[in-house]
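$ ./design --mode recover --in tokens.txt
reading tokens...
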């Protein structure tokens, strides 16, 4: 037997809202939506060896908490929680070489890294889920060991730094 319960909110016995339902019947989330995606506004020359900050300064999905001068996303006071970060690189070279890396840095220290052999314009990805606090900041770094300077490709669909808040 089917039943219908008409409500817009379920409350805990202490009076706090446990679940809210919108007029369209969908469950409303208490997680404030936060997202950003930035790419290169121009190809970026990266020297062989060392770890280099990626100059992600072109907004694909803009966010006022992303600084396009320091290439840094800083978590504001009311947006702590669980985030998923996605980083992708593409080197503007048909040459193959052994060491190609992308890093996610949190508060100036590496917390995620992907390393691969570069094969003819191949994309490289790093995806991670992190617990973040207000004031934490994140940046994308890269490294390559081709033996000479090569460019990170300024192509929105091939080279980016993004993040999205997925939970509290």
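writing sequence...
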């Amino acid at each position: 037997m089917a039943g219908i319960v008409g409500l817009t909110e379920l409350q805990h016995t202490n009076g706090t809202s446990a679940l809210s339902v919108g007029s369209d019947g969908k469950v409303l989330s208490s997680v404030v939506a936060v997202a950003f995606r930035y790419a290169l506004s121009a190809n970026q020359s990266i020297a062989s060896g060392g770890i280099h900050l990626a100059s992600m300064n072109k907004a694909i999905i803009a966010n006022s908490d992303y600084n396009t001068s320091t290439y840094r996303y800083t978590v504001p006071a009311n947006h702590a929680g669980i985030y998923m970060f996605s980083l992708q690189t593409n080197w503007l070279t048909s040459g193959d070489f052994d060491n190609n890396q992308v890093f996610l840095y949190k508060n100036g220290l590496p917390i995620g890294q992907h390393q691969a052999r570069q094969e003819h314009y191949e994309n490289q990805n790093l995806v991670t889920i992190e617990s973040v606090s207000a004031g934490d900041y994140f940046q994308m770094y890269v490294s390559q060991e081709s033996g000479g300077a090569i460019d990170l490709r300024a192509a929105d669909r091939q080279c980016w730094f993004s993040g999205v808040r997925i939970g509290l």
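exit 0
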